[in-house]
Write a structure and sequence with these properties.
2 helices; START-like_dom_sf; 42% strand; globular; Polyketide_cyclase/dehydratase; alpha+beta; SRPBCC family protein; Alpha-D-Glucose-1,6-Bisphosphate, Chain A, domain 4; seven-stranded antiparallel beta sheet; 131 residues
């Protein structure tokens, strides 16, 4: 398994950050510009990256004010899980976005940089959305 992490500090309470991330409708603003055809509900989302992939995701677990797990609905090109971990208090939250992917050596060479870039983009966008 390969793991890609990005951690930021957000000037919002753990409760506010969790409630924002727990609703997939809020995730569109966290996506890179090359994501198109975004459709979402509270528990699920669908999007495309032109020329690369079409992906349906669902929130599979929510631990209030602590953790959100996101999994693919259909089998993607490689096994992947996305997790948001939230820690903090009433004023400030430390938020970590973790992508865990099962990549063979060839996929690891091709996908590692884009997956780390995605993790970094999502957390930076979260700071922009909430600060």
């Amino acid at each position: 398994m390969s793991t890609f992490k990005s951690t930021v500090t957000v000037n919002r309470s753990v409760d506010e950050v969790f409630n924002f991330l727990a609703d997939f409708n809020n995730h569109k603003g966290l996506m890179p510009d090359n994501v198109v055809n975004w459709k979402s509900g509270y528990n699920d989302a669908y999007f495309e990256v032109p020329g690369m992939l079409k992906l349906s995701l669902k929130i599979t677990e929510r631990k209030p004010n602590n953790y959100i797990e996101i999994s693919p609905v259909e089998k993607p090109p490689f096994a992947v899980k996305l997790n948001w971990e939230i820690k903090g208090d009433n004023d400030t939250s430390t938020v970590t976005f973790i992508i865990t992917a099962e990549l063979n050596m060839m996929m690891k060479m091709m996908a590692s940089a884009p997956l780390q870039k995605l993790a970094d983009h999502q957390t930076k966008a979260l700071v922009t959305q909430l600060n």
